[in-house]
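Problem 12. The chain below contains 175 residues. Write out its predicted structure in token notation.
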Amino acid sequence: MTENTEGNRNADTREPLASDFIIPVLASGLAIYYIVTTNDLVWEARAAGLFVGVPLLVMCGFVIARTIYRIVKGEGSFSGGDLFANTPFNWQRLGLIVILAAFVWKIERTGTTLGLFLVLVASMWMLGVRSIKQLLLIAGTTCMVVYVLLMYLVGSRLPRGPVEWLIAWAFGLEA
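Solution.
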């Protein structure tokens, strides 16, 4: 038996390129959002937004144009391929998106340290890490570094929650 059926000869063999638009479109949206929202801030923030945002928009434009060119040229199609297929990898991807969306949605209540700890543990569990020691060590170390560097030393305005309040109370760091 041969596998040269009519369906196989007419199958689209072009590379599916629709998913190649996801990251440049999201990055462009983020750059535009940052440029627009820093408009009312001090000149340093506006300059940083332009210094990072404009080159990012240019690079994203090149990637989008190159992808469109490849589709028009016939090297690829505007298909998502297996991007939306029912595969374990895609379910993991969806789970990670849900975990990160919940993190962003609840960060004001959980605070940066606790929220980051929970999102790291949940994400690593979703990706197959089952060692409690690894989960706690990696998430705990990451959260301590973020707290010490960004919240304590730099004094950034990341959301404060119960962990930050407990540290401040225990060590008398804030009034």
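Discussion. The first helix runs from residue 6 to 9. Students who got a different answer should revisit the alignment rule from Section 12.3.
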